[in-house]
Structure formats: C-alpha cells, structure tokens
Amino acid sequence: MVAAIPALPSLSYRAVCPFALLVLALLSGGCTSRESGPAFDHASSVQLERGRLLLAQYQCGSCHTIPDVQAARGRTGPALAAFGRRSYIAGHVPNGPDHLVRWIVAPAALVPGTLMPAMGVSPEDARDMAAYLLALE
Hints:
Elements (H helix, E strand, L loop, with lengths): L12 H17 L15 H13 L30 E2 L3 E2 L2 H9 L1 H4 L12 H13 L2
Antiparallel strand pairs: 1-2
Helix pairs in contact: 2-5, 3-5
C-alpha cells in the first residue's frame, strides 16, 4: 500500500520558505478592509436609521431578534446581534454588503431551499437594511 504513494521530492528549507511567504502574502491580500474596520463604515447615520426602520416595517422581527428594532423579538430565525462580525450569511454565503443585499431581496436565489422568505424588499431598501445589520458589531 505504501509503495503506491509516489515519493515526494525532498525540498530544502530554503526552497520551501519563499513559497510559504508567498502563500501567506496572497492569503493576507485576500482579506478585506472589513476584517480590520467597521463592516459598512461609509453608511451615513440617515441610512442606518432608515435601515433600522425598514427592518421593523418589513416585520423582520417576527422571526429575528434585532437590537434596537421595534418588536424584533422573534425566535424562529437566528438573532441578528453582532451581525457585522459574522463570516457567513445563512451559513453559506460570505457576509458582505453586496451578498447581504442580494440575500434580503431574494434569499432563495443565493441559498436554494432556505426558510428565509422573500419579503418583497426592493434593492434600495435592502441596501439600507444591510447597512444597519452590518453596522451591528
């Protein structure tokens, strides 16, 4: 059984080290500014407030608990406190403004079979709702 595995070429430390540094540099270059600062730092206070009000208007709180959103004490969906720190939306989609807007508008388009219903949210409203949610740190 062991004989079926091809022998790896022996690499010296000097040959591996530059490769490892290159991989680390590429991985750190893939990090977004979101990881070192606020998730939606360009959102105005007006946009954040509008997003908060829209989350109440669309009754997102019937399923989710959302900080500072009126009557948002639902327990069917996950609590959305500290949403801006999450890595994924619905456990599948990388968290970020563009994906979150698409998720709010048409959740099943991103995660087929999801229990999150489409609520008829316009892309404009979804941008403000996403800004509010991503600001929850």
